Amino acid sequence: MSGHLRLGVNIDHVATVRNARGSGYPDPVRAALIAAEAGADGITAHLREDRRHITDDDIARLADQLTVPLNLEMAATDEMLGIALRHGPHAACIVPERREERTTEGGLDAAGQHNHLAPMVRALKGANIRVSLFIEPDARQIEAAMRLGVPVVELHTGRYCELEGEARSVELRRIADAAALAAKNGIEVHAGHGLTFDNVAPIAAIPQLQELNIGHFLIGEAIFDGLAPVVRRMRALMDDAR
Ligand code: PXP
Q: Of 23, 37, 108, 176, which has the maximum CB count within 10 A?
């Protein structure tokens, strides 16, 4: 497949810095507009149940002001479904969410949660929102995604990013195999979590991948180099890997 690999920039942690002081700055919407201008193909934001970073108002302003697609990351709850249906983002990525976790620590159990997810997937699809499931690179989860009829899956790259040496190569192969299986069955494949300048190239080289969602590293690097140059560099590394 190969071709252009989209970059979705996740701006959650601009809001983390803002919320650390309860001030109005830095504004994640301003960051989103700068990222888009610098070459991000889309913007991703996770409205967590505890609102620890992105707020309802941020989502409303993103939906209103963005000219690139908005990908709303959401837990599979009725509250989040209502918010997604109200704002009609381009895409909604269903993620597992536990209040005590620091970040999304594992993939969604699409296989075990079929009955809970099915009506949610139906409602989002009915509203013309492109639904994706954030899952581990595992054949069982992909088969479950197929049974749910989702058009997109996002493969969790967190484990790949944490491992080193041979163990990382094994995990990379798992991701590549999962991407091939999903694509073969007509599912669009995205990936993300923990990606940096140093580890992105082997992931970006997987030909079936169509989008990477990257946040924490980019926002951190932006402190040193500014958001636009950092987004441009990530874009260039992704393009070089194709
Ligand atoms: N994709 C999904 C589904 C996520 O939940 C996250 C983290 O919010 C990311 C991508 C981005 O991960 P990171 O911030 O580590 O780049």
A: 108
Q: Going by CATH, does the domain composed of 6-241 fall within 3.90.420.10? A: no
- Per-residue pLDDT tens over the stretch 78-115: 999 999 999 999 999 999 977 666 766 789 999 999 99
Ligand 1, pocket residues at CB < 6 Å: 10, 12, 46, 73, 93, 95, 103-104, 134, 154, 192-195, 213-217
Both tokens of 59, joined, read 């989502």
Give the C-alpha separation, 139 to 168, whole Å.
18
Name the pTM for this structure: 0.96
CA of 197 to the centre of ligand 1 (A): 15
SS (H, E, C) 115-141: HHHHHHHHHHHHCCCEEEEEECCCHHH
Contact between 41 and 6 (Cβ < 8 Å): yes
The one catalytic residue among 13, 53, 73, 221: 73
Model confidence at 1: pLDDT above 90: no
- Tens-place pLDDT, residues 150-197: 999 999 999 999 999 999 999 999 999 999 999 999 999 999 999 999
How distant, in Å, are the alpha carbons of 76, 100, 130 from that of 55? 17, 18, 22
Question: Which of 7, 13, 44 best tests ligand 1's pocket when mutated (most atoms within 8 Å of CB)?
Answer: 44
Strand partners, 132: 93, 152
Q: Where are the domains of the chain?
A: 6-241
50: its two tokens: 């505890």
